[in-house]
Amino acid sequence: MTDTSIDLSLLPLRTAAPDAQVRHFTEILPTALAPDVLWAEFTRALKDSRNAVLWANNVSFVRALNEPIGEGTVLVENVQPTGAPLHYRLMEFSPPRRLRYASLQGHHLAGGATVSVEHADGKTTLRWQGEYYGTEAQLNGLDRFRAAFFSSLAQQLRQLRQLEAST
Predict the structure, then answer these.
(1) Cis, peptide link before residue 81, omega less than 30° from 0
(2) Which of 140, 63, 78, 68 has its CA nearest to residue 109?
(3) pLDDT over 70 at 64, yes or no
C-alpha cells in the first residue's frame, strides 16, 4: 500500500477569504509565578498538554508534532467535544518570553496569535493577542471557545501557582 499521509510541516498557512470578517482579541492572565516558571510550564503544555497543568484540557488538547519546539514546529489542537484537529505553525519562538503561531490550511479560520510572558513591577502576566478571519458565524464560535478556554486556563494558572507554593 502507498503511503498517502500528508507532511503537515509542508502545509501552507490558511489565507483569509476576500470577504472575511476579522476578530481581534487580547487576553491578559496575571499570575504570581516567576516569568521563567510560567514560560517553562506553557512550553511544556505545547509539547503535550495532557502531561501539563497549564492548559485548558477540558476545552482542548494541544501537542507538538515535532520537537524540539521552535520556529516551524507544527502544533495540533483537538477541540472538545468533537476532537477535530486544528493545525498551527510556530512562526516565531523567542524563549523565554514570546511565541507567535498561525493557522494552517484546513483550519476553519485564518490568522493566529502572539503569546508573551511579561514581567513588570514585580508582576507577571501571560498575554495572548490574536487576530482571526472567517465568517461571522465562525468568529462567534471563536468567541464562545475563547470564553471557555481562557476561563479554564486562568483556573489552571491558579492551580499551578498553588502547586508551586506548596513545594
Answers:
(1) yes
(2) 140
(3) yes
Distance, CA of 116 to CA of 128 (rounded, Å): 7
AA identity, residue 109 = L
pLDDT digits (tens, 9 = 90+) for 33-43: 999 999 999 99
What the block records as the C-alpha cell of 162 is 498553588
Q: Does the pLDDT at position 4 exceed 50?
A: no
What is the reported pTM? 0.92
- Maximum distance among all alpha carbons in the chain? 60
Q: Which helix (H) or strand (E) holds 124?
A: strand 123-134
SS3 139: helix
Question: What string of DSSP letters covers 74-110?
Answer: EEEEEETTT--EEEEEEEEEETTTEEEEEEBTT-SSE
